[in-house]
């Protein structure tokens, strides 16, 4: 019985870091996922491309990055209270056109939750 308790305690201790990693995502893996976004977006600087810069995205009201011509749908979403946090970004990344109807972003979305977690971890590096 004592061996079982020790084995369970050891396995729980060893698995905890991995459970946290799965929830929070892996920024290095997120850099690979970001390659799909990099055609239109930049995260490591405050430069707009075809899409707005994603630098300091978290906490930003949707549709408000300076010098970017957003769709009226995105501006309205911001006026309606959409502020980019992990939960809203996760929904948006799953299906941008469902989260913000009328967005001009052509990207269909990411279907893999791990990819989304990793991408969010990557973007968080540039929001501090």
User: SSE order in H/E notation?
Assistant: HHHHHH
Q: Would you report the number of β strands?
A: 0
Reported for the largest beta sheet, the result is: none
Distance between the termini: 48 Å
Rg, nearest Å: 18 Å
Beta content: under 5%
Determine the mean pLDDT: 87
- What's the helix count? 6
Low-pLDDT runs: 4-22
Specify the overall morphology.
globular
Percent helix, as a range, is: 40-55%
Oligomer: single chain
Helix/strand/pairing class, anyone? mainly alpha
Question: What brief labels describe this structure?
Answer:
single chain, 128 residues, mainly alpha, 0% strand, globular
Write structural notes for this entry.
- The chain has 128 residues and is mainly alpha-helical.
- It is 50% helix and 0% strand.
- It contains 6 helices and no strands.
- The protein has helices spanning 2-24, 27-34, 72-79, 86-94, 96-99, 113-124.
- Helix 2 (27-34) packs across helix 6 and helix 4 (86-94) crosses helix 6 (113-124).
- The N and C termini lie far apart (48 Å).
- The model is unreliable at 4-22 (pLDDT under 50).
């Amino acid at each position: 019985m004592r061996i079982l308790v020790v084995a369970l305690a050891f396995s729980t201790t060893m698995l905890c870091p991995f459970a946290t990693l799965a929830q929070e995502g892996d920024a290095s893996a997120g850099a690979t996922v970001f390659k799909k976004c990099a055609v239109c977006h930049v995260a490591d600087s405050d430069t707009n491309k075809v899409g707005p810069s994603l630098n300091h995205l978290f906490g930003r009201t949707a549709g408000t990055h300076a010098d970017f011509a957003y769709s009226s749908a995105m501006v309205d979403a911001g006026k309606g209270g959409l502020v980019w946090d992990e939960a809203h970004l996760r929904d948006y990344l799953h299906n941008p056109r469902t989260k913000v109807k009328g967005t001009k972003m052509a990207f269909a979305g990411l279907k893999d939750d791990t990819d989304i977690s990793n991408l969010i971890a990557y973007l968080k590096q540039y929001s501090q």
